[in-house]
Write a structure and sequence with these properties.
Elements lengths: L2 H12 L3 H20 L4 E3 L3 E4 L2 E2 L2 E4 L6 E4 L2 E2 L6 E4 L1 H13 L7
Antiparallel strand pairs: 1-2, 2-7, 3-6, 4-5
Helix pairs in contact: 1-2
Amino acid sequence: MNKTELVAAIAADTNLSKADAARVFDSALEHLTGALAKGEAVQLIGFGNFAVANRPERSGRNPSTGEPMTIKARKVRPCSSAWVPSRSSRRRAQLVDDIAGHVDAR
């Protein structure tokens, strides 16, 4: 599912126009990424958690010269944030896999 399909589904479920549903969707994403940019964790009950990860300082090598170097500590950008699905989201995804015949052998 892509953004256009999701906006269309929201519009159909809420009796909003696609333009209004797109504005609602864009606003929700703006608030979510804004909170992540501030370093806040976002918890959506029944869906999952989003958090910005901190990468510690580490040693590496310059790929051009092979010289050792230190890579600075930094925060991972919000668009690269870690999403931890909720238990109910994992169960729904597992149900879809089971129905499709992709039963997990764990």
